[in-house]
Amino acid sequence: MSPEVMGYCSRAIIRYLNGDIALFMEYINKAMELYEEEKKKERLYITIGELIDFATKEKLLSLIAKGG
Fold it and tell me: What number of helices (H) and strands (E) belong to the chain?
């Protein structure tokens, strides 16, 4: 979780404790929106190694070791 998201969460908690529910909801919604954007970006960066199952990796490694 980014520092920006944590900042919005912290502000939201303080606003809730002070009784400002409207601003609490605004900060929470902004934090959730930023968090969801971060999660979408994380999903874009998947290595090929994560997509290939173990058996296929072993076959590829044996091909590389044999030189072709």
Answer: 4, 0
